[in-house]
Amino acid sequence: MKIAFLGTAHPFRGGLAAFNERLAQAYQKQGDEVKIFTFTTQYPNFLFPGKSQFSDSPAPLDIKIERTLSSINPISWFKTAEKINACEPDIVVTRFWLPFMGLALGTVLRRLNKNIKVVCIVDNLIPHEKRAGDKIFTKYFLPPVDGFICMSEAVKNDFKQFKTKAPIEFSPHPIYDYGELTSKEVARGKLQLNPTDKIILFFGIIRDYKGLDWLIEAFSQTRYEENGYKLLIAGEFYTDNKPYLELISKHELNDFIILHDRFISDSDVGLYFNSANLVVQPYKHATQSGVAQIAYHFEKPMIVTNVGGLGEIVPNNIAGYVVEPEVDAIAKGIYDFFVLEKEEDFIAGVRQEKTKYSWDKFIAAMAKLYQ
């Protein structure tokens, strides 16, 4: 098949770009011809709270990527549609993760040749951080899509709020395979971490809905000093960092929390996960989680809150703990994990569960939807 992707890719950074590129590689591995049409301008400044939208890593050599679409320039929307039509793809694969993008993407899709099928991978139908115009942009985007893939049942259920006759398939988020598994000692040596500490990892871009404040409060309740616990926070703040730093100071945790508040490049992701005993996702609300799929790749037990689709991804007491979205419950999960010595049991569960999340299975779900 000839497949055109419409969405984020290099030189842009982050999980969306990594997912699209990894999926493109999976299609190419089975013999399909793939090209990604990505942005010239992705986010206007008012929508992007980070330091940079761009990756420092080299472009993937095995994927054709063309920058053509500006989210804020309508002329580019028409030109992008023309370029995709000229490639004569069998299918266009796009993403929906932010209503603002619905206007640009929806316009491109409306101008595609009618024989081209459109499949959309839906990350969030309803955004975590709501803004004026969300429903209008979402409703505009949906009609030209022929079928949807949701990576959690929670997102699939959100479609009940919108009218669409297109089929909707569920297929869980595949594993992000960032680098090799190495020993804790080797990874900690490179990050200059104590080899004997029990390290709890919070990873990823920091937004308020991800519950880092809950985790800091929970950590303060875990007898961290006598038990040798350290909380490693690795990620760039996409929100005001002041309340979090004040919370750390309030509980006198500066010597027990290791803060690497920057965007973690793909090449360094493995260092953080290989260093950890436990990955905690204390989200206040969620859909699915790319962080969980990185943890699966590096065979790390998890604690997740019972929100959105997180409980679907991490079976309780097998690959980790699913706890209620409350500070006390998160604290108890951390304490029980170490006191009950659950690490090896949960690693075995993670190894068992990770087989469910292959890219081949995701492509099979896409093929079913296409048929």
Your description of this structure?
With 371 residues, the chain is of the alpha/beta class. The protein has two domains: 2-170, Rossmann fold, CATH 3.40.50; 184-356, Glycogen Phosphorylase B (Rossmann fold), CATH 3.40.50. It has helices at residues 15-29, 74-87, 102-110, 134-141, 153-158, 184-191, 212-219, 224-227, 242-250, 266-275, 290-297, 310-313, 327-339, 343-353, 359-370; strands spanning 2-6, 33-41, 64-70, 91-96, 117-122, 147-150, 168-170, 198-203, 229-234, 257-260, 278-281, 302-305, 320-323. α1 links the parallel β1 and β2. The mean pLDDT is 94.
Alpha carbon gap, first and last residue: 13 Å
Query: Helix and strand succession?
Result: EHEEHEHEHEHEHEHHEHEHEHEHEHHH
Q: Proportion of β residues?
A: 15-25%
**What is the radius of gyration?**
21 Å
**Which blocks of ≥5 consecutive residues have pLDDT under 50?**
none
Summarize the structure.
37% of the residues lie in helices and 18% in strands.
Give the helices and strands, then pairings.
Layout: E1 2-6, H1 15-29, E2 33-41, E3 64-70, H2 74-87, E4 91-96, H3 102-110, E5 117-122, H4 134-141, E6 147-150, H5 153-158, E7 168-170, H6 184-191, E8 198-203, H7 212-219, H8 224-227, E9 229-234, H9 242-250, E10 257-260, H10 266-275, E11 278-281, H11 290-297, E12 302-305, H12 310-313, E13 320-323, H13 327-339, H14 343-353, H15 359-370
Parallel strand pairs: 1-2, 1-4, 2-3, 4-5, 5-6, 6-7, 8-9, 8-11, 9-10, 11-12, 12-13
